[in-house]
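Same chain as my last thread, 136 residues:
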Amino acid sequence: AVAGLTEEQLDTPYREDGWTVRQVVHHLVDSHVVAYFWFKMAVTQDCPAIQTYQPAVWAELSDGKSAPVEMSLAILNGLHPRWVSFLRSLSPEQFERKLEHPRHGMLTVDRYLEIFGWHSPHHEAHITSLREREGW
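reply #2:
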């Protein structure tokens, strides 16, 4: 979705008052690293209470606003296959294990998998829609 974009394009918000393309890419890494940790906690602990993070605040940190997207793409290119390998090793019972989220309550690993399976394509669509609108 970001191949061939210039620095100026990467620093363009995908919508009014929205994150820039760069921030969206870095957000994916932030959220997926946190989620990978949550999945491991759910499988190895009994109903762990997870600590959340503040995506909007993290997006405003200097790395989220200015680091090269290649850094985050490299992390995603390593993390996603590792996450898939981990998920493929789980038993049906392990997919039913639960996490306690402070706002959403008890959710299973399977439900979190649905959420994060949606997450990347959702944000990729933000970027591709911007590219279409701008003719990039």
